[in-house]
Amino acid sequence: MSEKTANHMPPGRRERKKAATRQSLADAALRLFLERGYDQVGIRDIADAADVSTTTLFKHFPVKEALVFDEDADQEERLLAAVRDRPQGQSVPAALREHALRHRVGARDDDADFAAFVELVESTPALRDYAQSMWLRHETALAHAIAEAAGAPADDPHCAALAHFVLEAPRTAHGRADGRERVARAFDLLERGWNGVSPGT
Predict the structure, then answer these.
(1) Is the pTM of this model over 0.70?
(2) Shortest CA distance to 34 belongs to which of 134, 105, 114?
(3) Is 1 helix (H, G, I), strand (E, B) or coil?
(4) What is the rounded CA–CA span in Å between residue 84 and residue 147?
(5) Which residues neighbour 60 within 8 Å (Cβ) at sequence distance 6 or greater?
(6) Structural domains of the chain, ranges and CATH numbers in brackets
(7) Averaged pLDDT in 10-residue chunks for the chain of 201 residues
């Protein structure tokens, strides 16, 4: 069996069970956090609600904050795809602007559940800080994807700088009614700066 074929096989029973347990824990945690507040919910409360042991919980989520952000890998994949799968002729900053406005700034304003999630994160310092540190962990992967797109070395400083500022730009929207406009203007600045440099030199 080729590696390509193996990678496209549906997950086995064990993998499905692990995924279901992880989802059950994440769902229970979010429900309890929204009902009681993050600081009022303990690890044992979440484990009991999902009908698993605390040991099992920690196998899936190493820290309490991680329970709220169970789509970390998917977020990184979408971020990198924005660069790699952008339409021909579209600049990297423009592609990342679209990604930020679609996925990180008011993407689901009409979704009450999503609004409640955002409010939970924004009103909880531990979650807010964890969300930011989690997002910045994608910086290296994004810098490499930008460098690849630009034909530059993986450690190119221009690509690293663009990756950093792209990930920080959505912070300008926090708590602002004109958040989308602010983020768009931040990307205007990044686009102009990117056009003025030559990655790889």
Answers:
(1) no
(2) 114
(3) coil
(4) 11
(5) 18, 21, 22, 25
(6) 3-65 (1.10.10.60), 72-195 (1.10.357.10)
(7) 47 87 95 96 97 96 92 86 95 94 65 79 91 83 95 95 91 76 91 87 73
